[in-house]
Amino acid sequence: MRIVVVAEHDGTAVRGASLSALAFAQSVAAATGGDVSWLVLGHKVDVVAQDAALLAPVIVVDSPALENPIAEPFARVISTVVKERGFELVAAASSTFAKDIVPRAAAQLGGAMASDVVRHELADGRLQLDTPRYAGAVTATVVLQGLPQIVTVRGSAYAAAQPTGENHGIERLELNPAVFDCRGSYEGLKSKQNARPDVTEARVVVSGGRAFKNAEDFEQHVGGLADALGGAAGSSRALVDAGIAPNELQVGQTGKIIAPEVYIALGISGAVQHLAGMKNSRTIVAVNSDPEAPIFDVADYGLVGDVYKITPELIEKLESH
Ligand code: FAD
């Protein structure tokens, strides 16, 4: 299969979740005898393209129209490049950015799409894709009909692709200006400045639940332990709904699905919707005053006690080392 992977980036480097999408694509290409290219989109993205070229050949579309993440031009550029180059499979990370853009491109291409793929297999020459449903309670195995096929890949399900030690080259593509036409206009971005990494990128995630009574306590305990470990702060939905933690920290079925090396759940009960977002973490640590809390069923290490007492002790011990 001829495969293109949409490279999500932060303006300087490709995001970890896209490296997992590349790993998926490389595995499919190895099984089908195909090839894989990156598609880097944005404005002034030379540095990103150079970073991406360390893993696979890069096609770059650079335009002021792609400076801000507006779905319309991004989707049309993807569908145009796929048509012009005859790509048979489009892969992207299963992220908020991709959820906005990739289904539009799939509709423009008239292609079949599978979202949030966690496993794949080539059986009888057909690519079978596993995608979880109902918060992971069941897994559907789907085979997409026709070409092109469009797939988003869950970052936590595939280990990130690694640089190969060679430069795979960069091709700059000029497209007809009409491709960038957009009915929307970019009015600005409101973003909380957060010095901590995003939960999807961090090796260690410390999440807080309803045990925390207000934003100050959350910041002091959850933020404090995250900082002491150089990790990200996350949250259950209960705290997001209560306005105590910001939306982007939510882990779970309707939040972010992650699999860090270490996940620390402070005062989180372990509802199935929360587990759906973190149960594949390599090591899970839970602190909860209720010894019967379901979070202990998935925890590798459990501490029964009050987070208001235990968390400061953990922070103090870490900081004294
Ligand atoms: P609770 O369930 O209230 O648990 C609080 C825990 O803290 C308890 O176990 C308690 O023993 C413990 N505790 C209390 N005080 C202390 C203390 N001082 N020290 C130590 N422990 C203490 N939830 C998500 O998290 N993410 C999602 O994406 C998500 N999506 C959802 C989607 C749908 C469609 C639905 C219906 C629900 C969703 N939920 C989600 C909500 C989910 O069902 C739970 O309500 C939520 O996860 C509970 O959050 P919590 O564990 O913080 O709170």
TrEMBL record:
GO BP, sorted A to Z: fatty acid beta-oxidation using acyl-CoA dehydrogenase
Pfam families: ETF (PF01012), ETF_alpha (PF00766)
Keywords, ordered alphabetically: Electron transport, FAD, Flavoprotein, Transport
Function: The electron transfer flavoprotein serves as a specific electron acceptor for other dehydrogenases. It transfers the electrons to the main respiratory chain via ETF-ubiquinone oxidoreductase (ETF dehydrogenase).
UniProt name for this protein: Electron transfer flavoprotein subunit alpha
Top-level taxon in the UniProt lineage: Bacteria
Domain Electron transfer flavoprotein alpha/beta-subunit N-terminal: 3-186
Gene this protein is translated from: etfA
Cofactor binding summary note: Binds 1 FAD per dimer.
Organism this protein belongs to: Lacipirellula limnantheis
Cofactors named for this entry: FAD
